[in-house]
């Protein structure tokens, strides 16, 4: 940081940009409303201010309360954007925190038109901590969305947010989902402790969704829980409102075995009408607090012997257990309230049982027996010759991930031209394989790429094998 002395005003260098300051006719120090990318621009601006003071035309800058900051600067425009967006209270609070704590202190005073990709990259690599990857990703995503709006409005020619590899955040820990046997132990707990956790572990409801349930949302005749609202807390205020995303509003099937337990609990509730909360707080009217739910969950996880799991991990358990039944991705998305298949994948994890079953199937597949797999589309049995580009491990991982476990899971997909059943297997070192794609295959380690025809053919056969 350096400061240049001048006959009028001063120019200070700050992280590659220049800040102009001066003492006005009111004998108070004033800053320019934004930073300058070039020193000459700051000098020109100070010259204009000096001339206006000399001509007695200068007026001290006045900031009107409630008026947005200068919309030419990033901070002013960002605050204006967030004020215009329809956001839940919790999201608005979080976006405001990211803006004021991480974005505005470094970039806020810069004019939109002077924001450059190099400056954004420096901010991303130096200001945002790599030790907090989720916060880092959210702050960058917020900035990118704000500047996308500026681009759409023609305020900038192109969005300068071009940092590469800002993608999926790596998990900091592995989650071992709760098993059905562990979840069944919840039935031995007092209902107000066990039921909220049970709805998370079997139905995938989050903390705010569980606490926001009303009696009318539980249909035990149909075996459905209707997720229509969630509880959030911001700055000491409790809010009960609609879901943040449209996909979050959903109907989720309840497994039959806990329904009698739920019915007994509902029958014992005080008569406060169908709009009463399913899990009321201490006053019997407001929803259960987050603190009360944490206390209940603390008791529950000791009983089931899984103190390594957080309450939100129960949602991961629900997605994993549902996936192992063979539920297709569309059903899992609907159950969990996710808009994309990628989010479903993030919530699914292998269990000890599924890993053991996978290893057993791989062991069975090591011999020379011809693999056979039932195709659900035809109801018959299709012989898949051992002759083309889908490797055993890929298909095993595929079927394990999708929850479909065939007794003889070692499969190979024939090439586009097909081969006779008597053909010999190809060389294991063959480069043929199917490329990785979400919901299809995991990549196998071979140097060359298969032909487009072989990939398309393999994908079509896999589609027939999918549930």
TrEMBL record:
Q: Which residues form a coiled coil?
A: none
Instruction: Identify the SUPFAM superfamilies for this entry.
Output: DNA breaking-rejoining enzymes (SSF56349)
This protein's source sits in the domain of life called Bacteria
Q: Where is the Tyr recombinase domain?
A: 173-363
Give this protein's Gene Ontology molecular function annotations: DNA binding
Q: Where is this region: Disordered?
A: 408-467
One BP term from GO = DNA integration
- Cross-referenced PROSITE patterns: CB, TYR_RECOMBINASE
Keyword list, A-Z: DNA recombination, DNA-binding
Provide the Core-binding (CB) domain boundaries: 72-151
Q: Which family does it belong to?
A: Belongs to the 'phage' integrase family.
Q: Which PANTHER family match?
A: PHAGE INTEGRASE-RELATED (PTHR30349), PROPHAGE INTEGRASE INTD-RELATED (PTHR30349:SF64)
Specify the protein name: Site-specific integrase
The source organism is Propioniciclava sinopodophylli
């Amino acid at each position: 940081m350096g400061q240049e002395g001048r006959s009028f005003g001063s120019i200070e260098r700050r992280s590659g940009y220049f800040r102009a300051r001066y003492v006005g006719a009111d004998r108070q120090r004033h800053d320019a409303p934004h930073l300058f990318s070039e020193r000459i621009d700051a000098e020109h601006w100070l010259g204009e201010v000096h001339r206006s003071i000399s001509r007695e035309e200068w007026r001290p800058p006045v900031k009107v309360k409630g008026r947005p900051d200068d919309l030419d600067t990033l901070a002013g425009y960002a605050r204006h954007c967030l004020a215009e967006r329809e956001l839940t209270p919790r999201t608005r609070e979080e976006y405001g925190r990211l803006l004021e704590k991480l974005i505005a202190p470094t970039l806020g005073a810069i004019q939109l038109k002077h924001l450059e990709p190099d400056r954004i990259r420096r901010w991303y690599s130096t200001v945002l901590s790599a030790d907090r990857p989720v916060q880092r990703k959210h702050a960058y995503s917020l900035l990118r969305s704000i500047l996308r709006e500026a681009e759409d409005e023609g305020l900038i020619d192109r969005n300068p947010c071009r940092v590469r590899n800002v993608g999926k955040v790596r998990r900091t820990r592995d989650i071992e989902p709760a098993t059905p046997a562990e979840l069944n132990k919840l039935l031995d707990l007092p209902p107000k402790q066990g039921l909220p956790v049970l709805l998370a572990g079997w139905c995938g409801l989050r903390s705010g969704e569980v606490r926001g349930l009303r009696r009318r949302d539980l249909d035990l005749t149909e075996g459905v829980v209707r997720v229509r609202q969630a509880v959030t807390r911001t700055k000491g205020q409790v809010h009960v409102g609609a879901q943040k995303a449209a996909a979050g509003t959903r109907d989720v099937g309840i497994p039959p075995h806990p329904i009698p337990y739920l019915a007994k609990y509902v029958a014992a509730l005080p008569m406060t009408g169908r709009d009463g909360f399913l899990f009321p707080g201490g006053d019997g009217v407001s929803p259960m607090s987050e603190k009360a739910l944490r206390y209940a969950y603390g008791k529950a996880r000791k009983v089931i012997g899984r103190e390594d799991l957080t309450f939100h991990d129960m949602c991961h358990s629900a997605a994993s257990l549902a996936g192992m039944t063979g539920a297709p991705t569309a059903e899992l998305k609907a159950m969990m309230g996710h808009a994309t298949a990628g989010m479903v994948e993030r919530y699914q994890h292998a269990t000890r049982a599924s890993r053991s079953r996978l290893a057993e199937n791989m062991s069975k597949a090591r011999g020379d027996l011809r693999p056979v797999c039932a195709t659900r589309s035809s109801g018959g049995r299709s012989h898949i010759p051992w002759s083309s580009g889908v490797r055993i491990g890929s298909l095993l991982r595929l079927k394990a991930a999708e929850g479909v476990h065939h007794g003889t899971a070692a499969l190979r997909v024939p090439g586009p031209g097909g081969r006779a059943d008597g053909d010999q297997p190809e060389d294991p070192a063959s480069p043929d394989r199917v490329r990785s794609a979400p919901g299809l295959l995991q990549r196998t380690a071979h140097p060359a790429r298969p032909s487009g025809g072989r990939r398309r053919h393999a994908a079509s056969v896999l589609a027939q094998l999918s549930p």
